[in-house]
Amino acid sequence: MGGKLVLITGVTRGLGRAMAEEFIRLGHTVLGCGRSEGDINQLRLRYCQPHEFCAVNVASNDAVESWAKHLLNSHGPPDLLLNNAAVINANDPLWRISATQFSFVIDVNVKGVANVIRHFVPSMIGRRKGVGHRRTYVGAGAGTARRPGGRLLQSGHYQH
Fold first, then answer.
1. pTM to 2 decimals?
2. CA 157/CA 147 separation, integer angstroms
3. Where in the sequence is the domain holding 43, given as residue range(s)?
4. What pLDDT digit, counting tens, does each position of 138-156 carry?
């Protein structure tokens, strides 16, 4: 998979940050986003072009659309899309989670995944981009299930 263009959401910490650093170490170009401008600036300082990192809230369709237009014009469609951005509610039973907190989880983990797919996957299909000539999408927030202890888990994978 040498020299691929990898797009990762939720790249500022945790698994997203680790994946970005490893893909860069392996010689791939990483395009990433996260909500924290400060963390994004740290990534920009550490990893210069051709890598590109932007502060984007994936829950905002308009923000994702603007980011996608910019990246697709400057880099073309990604070979691999890792829809990793996700948040988790407090460790409480669902009935104790406020409507606002629950909506935030849904906005990022479900709507955010849809926004990224909506604005990147058509270009991947149109240009026949994807791992092994197949469009590959891996998402951390594609579905939700309640786990003991009250947290909502996110997991889902799609390969076409």
1. 0.81
2. 19
3. 5-159
4. 554 444 444 444 433 333 4
